[in-house]
Amino acid sequence: MTKAYIIYWSGTGNTEKMANIIADGVKLAGGEPEVLDVSTVKPELLDGVKAYALGCPSMGAEQLEESSMEPFVVDLLPHVSGKQIALFGSYGWGDCEWMRDWEKRLQDAGATILGTEGVTVLGEPDSETEEKLIEIGKLIASNLD
Ligand SMILES: Cc1cc2nc3c(=O)[nH]c(=O)nc-3n(C[C@H](O)[C@H](O)[C@H](O)COP(=O)(O)O)c2cc1C
To answer: Ligand 1 center to residue 2 CA distance, Å?
Structure first.
């Protein structure tokens, strides 16, 4: 079975919680999730994978985390054409510009955003966000093959 990869960066755990809820959604749909910290992953892992999830909170000034996630995304971009990618992340005070920018970078490189737009939440995931993340997990599982 193709694994459902959920790759994230998280400083204080909010985005990590989101990743684990997506994994629950994958399991509910009968899939096999693999939640990985981005610092342990090379983009080649995703070469043959049609659908996966990437998560990162808003960092810097409405940016991706710069040491691990930003370089990972830069390396991944040439390989995302035709892929179905779910995006998610937590934020603190902004208006989610970081997520809109991230969606656009992937779409401009030929990817489709699963669920139409990235799932964002202020701080920790609440119950409404949990429901969205579960649905995202199910969507990934149903788009793997
Ligand atoms: C260095 C730093 C920069 C941040 N920059 C932003 C920002 O530009 N916009 C925003 O909405 N939140 C910003 N935040 C808040 C985080 O996105 C927020 O605390 C989030 O919940 C962290 O998610 P995590 O627990 O997965 O690390 C920043 C936090 C830190 C530590």
So the answer is: 32
Q: Pick from 55, 119, 43, 36: which is nearest to 80 by CA?
A: 43
> Is 30 touching ligand 1 by the criterion CB < 6 Å?
no
Best CATH choice for the domain 4-142 from the list 3.40.50.360, 3.65.10.10, 3.40.50.1820, 1.20.1260.10 = 3.40.50.360
User: Hey, what amino acid is at 128?
Assistant: E
123 Cβ below 6 A of ligand 1:
yes
Residue 100 has a pLDDT of: 98
Residue whose CB lies within 8 A of the most ligand 1 atoms, among 91, 97, 100, for a mutation test: 91
| Res 46: pLDDT | 95
Residues of the chain with pLDDT under 70: none
For the chain, which residues make up each domain, given as ranges? 4-142
Verify whether ligand 1 is closer than 6 Å to residue 67 (CB atom): no
Distance from C-alpha of 47 to C-alpha of 34, rounded to nearest angstrom: 15
